[in-house]
Amino acid sequence: GSEMCIRDRAVVGGQLTLTANYGHSSTVLSTLFSAGTRGWSFAPSITAPIFHAGALKASLDASKIGKDIGIAQYEKAIQQAFSEVADALATRDHLVAQMEAQRALVAASQRSYTLADVRYRTGLDGYLQALDAQRSLYAAQQDLIALQQQEAGNRVTLFKVLGGGADAR
């Protein structure tokens, strides 16, 4: 089994201090026992705190583990914050490009509808072509509105992940 090494640190003014650590048996302890009886050979007034090192080592280990866990949690929080900001910025870039393309589509759809309406009014085309152009214009406008809503939500997310609060200006 594992042996506990106990060594005598000091005997001063009626106080006996013992320490415990891992290792081999110490011959110093053998002087504490009287021959044959294996009883303590010091007076009852002496205090002997024995085996505190194990508790201290366990406490130190727990403290170190707690510190390591705290550092890991801190690093994870920083990585998560950077990830959230990077995701929000990437989404923002994507949304800006989509909105530019959608605005161009809305403008083209508006021109197409205007031309289809003029052709209908002058009698060159039927009403179905004008209605189809109008439907395309409305669909493009609805898609632009949906992108604008996403962009507004992304602005809120970006504000939040950058540390904005209700009282921020």
The separation of the N and C termini measures 67 Å
Structural class: mainly alpha
Give the helix level as a range of percent.
55-70%
Strand segment count: 2
Overall geometry: rod-shaped
Report strand order across the widest sheet: 1-2
Look at the structure and give the mean pLDDT: 74
Q: How many distinct domains?
A: 2
Tell me the Rg in angstroms.
41 Å
Order of helices and strands: EEHH
Major sheet:
2 strands, antiparallel
**Proportion of residues in extended strands:** 5-15%
Number of helices: 2
- Which architecture of the largest domain would the CATH scheme give at its second level? Orthogonal Bundle
CATH class type of the largest domain: Mainly Alpha
Low-pLDDT parts are 1-48
CATH topology of the largest domain: Helix Hairpins
